[in-house]
Amino acid sequence: MNKTVNIIYPRRRQTAKDVKVIGLQEPVRRTMYDIVKDNFRTIQRTDFLMRLIYIGEHTFSKSDNTLNDFFLETVTRANDNFQCSEKITGLLVRYAKHFIHVLEGDEIAIHLHLKYLYKSETHLQKLKNMKLLVQINHCHSRLLSDWQTYTANPSMLLETIDAENIQEETGRQIFVCVKKMYDLVEKMSVRSSGIMRSSELGSFQLDSMSLRERSSLYVRSSMIGGSLNYVEYYQKELPEIERLEFLLKSPFPIDLTAFKEIFGVVPQRDIYKDKVWPVPADFIPYDIFDQLYDIRLDMPKPGVKEVSNSDVEEEHLLEVDDDTNEEKTD
């Protein structure tokens, strides 16, 4: 006759997740990191967007496209890096001997572009005196959706630049150049059919040396032909060469080489030479061991002469002398 044996298995211990707390629930604690991630998710971005605007001089030939190809190569190499989450977009405006470069991308992409820019010694010899105008570490949105080039001749500046008050004039000219570049990008985005993307032709050529003698205040006539009309549509927004030359000679804009050295190297701060941790604060009593001080624990009685600190020190010295005399007699 078979007997059934009832096996009693041990019950699974109830974990903290299975226990339902009845009553007031613990509030969900959100940190600043959670808020930053939510903001990135809202704007469909994964990293902070950085913007640079720098100017410079070049000695490349006007007939060839070497300058545009070189900058396109540095941007492409930076975008091909797997660490770049926000690819580089921007606009390169090229004159006969000057250029203006607007860059947008994440921190790693901008650093790689500057690294490849200064790595090529053959092309770097023809790029001289590059200076930074604006650095924005966190942009709300991009100006352009692709990297583009634009070659043209700006108008001649009629107004005089105050060279005596160089500090205030430098700030004013930087503001004017940046404002003109923003207006130029806005016009190009509105008339998107007029500008070629770098993936298609590489650059948009609009060179006309006869336009150099015109002023930026010149109002175009309706009798001008179609091609000239199209050139002057953007020409009004181009920063003049006189402004760029003044900014390149001014000592206040930071040199792009110095900016690369500061930006590309993480600073190692030598705080107290790593000998003291944590770092001393203001409330630490540094003079606590300067002199001997006996703390009085008893409250003074009325009618009793108050004992001064000198009497306490003399009494302490007498006790020390008595102890030494007893040791000698022993």
From TrEMBL:
Biased composition (Acidic residues): 311-330
Location of the region described as Disordered in the Swiss-Prot/TrEMBL record: 305-330
One term of GO molecular function: blue light photoreceptor activity
Residue stretches making up the BLUF domain: 49-150
InterPro entries according to UniProt: Acylphosphatase-like_dom_sf (IPR036046), BLUF_domain (IPR007024), TEX47-like (IPR055308)
One Pfam family per UniProt: TEX47
Superkingdom, natural source: Eukaryota
Protein's recorded name: BLUF domain-containing protein
Organism: Diabrotica balteata (Banded cucumber beetle)
Taxonomic path: Eukaryota, Metazoa, Ecdysozoa, Arthropoda, Hexapoda
